[in-house]
Amino acid sequence: MGQTRYTLSALLNTSFPDPVWAVDDVIPVGLTDLAGRPKIGKSWLALQIAGAVSSGGSVLGRQVQQGRVLFIALEDSPRRLQDRLKAQGISPSAELEFAFEWPRLDVGGIGALAAELAAVRYRLVVIDTLSRALGRLDQNDIGKMSDTIGRLQETALSNNTALLGLDHHRKTGAFDSDPLDDVLGSTGKTAPLDCALGLYRDRAGGFVLKGRGRDMPEVDLALAWDPVSCTWQSNGSAAQFAMAGNRSKILAALRAAVPDALTASDVASETGIDRKNTTTILNDLCDSGAVRKLPKVGRNVPYVLV
């Protein structure tokens, strides 16, 4: 453990190193919770991240620094993980080790992890899943969760390791999603986290990875599943990806209406995009010169392609 007490002057004048990441702006050193609904693809994503870090590859559009990885697989068999490793094409030379048994976190598991991290310098440790590692502990018990998850987070931080725990969402539908509020269990479980990530289906049937954490930008990535490589591919910012898709829909609706013009209400009805976003995008398209406003007809403004 580093220095634990400072005078005001010393604290203000201390130069601290830049934050360390397993995956830049997504998985920091400390404890990250990656949650989602069952069978949405969390384990595939975690294995993909482990493969990238252990081989020094790229994931989610980011090049990552190579380091050793420990994957604690409590819900998969060696045969199943072998199949998945082959499907993702993870390099046989990657510094990736698997443990298929681990003591429960409250019955020696955290101590065992601390000893492992003291003996081996791991850049990333994955626990799949936190619920299995927590065993019979009541995840709605604020005190027990705060103590156990807090000690787990301290173990990761004190060893300068990124710890990624796979978890579950408690909601059946999460269009108004919040990666912290949606995690199964009490606030005592989420309060110690350095980052909470959530993998969601969006309204259009696509996928998005959202995240909130300490001293880091919010994560908001549009993802697409590649069935050939069995990996998740990033399409960049989810907001920008959705905006680009909506722009295409609006242009297509205006094109189909030629030679007639459409009002914002007409376009919203044709595309299924809400009226407010439709108007915003139409105005942006006018500014870019792709669309032109016509004189008002009563209270409505017609739009046409240029």
Tags for this model:
Rossmann fold, 2 domains, Arc Repressor Mutant, subunit A, about 300 residues, 10 helices
Summarize the structure.
By secondary structure, the chain is an alpha/beta fold. The chain folds into two domains: 15-226, 3-Layer(aba) Sandwich (Rossmann fold); 242-305, Winged helix-like DNA-binding domain superfamily/Winged helix DNA-binding domain (Arc Repressor Mutant, subunit A), CATH 1.10.10.
Give your account of this protein's structure.
The protein is of the alpha/beta class and 306 residues long. It contains ten helices and 16 strands. The protein has helices at 8-13, 42-55, 78-88, 105-119, 130-134, 142-158, 187-190, 238-257, 264-271, 275-288, and strands at residues 21-23, 27-28, 30-36, 58-59, 62-63, 68-73, 96-99, 122-128, 162-168, 195-201, 207-213, 219-226, 231-237, 262-263, 291-293, 302-305. It starts with 7 loop residues before the first helix and ends with a strand.
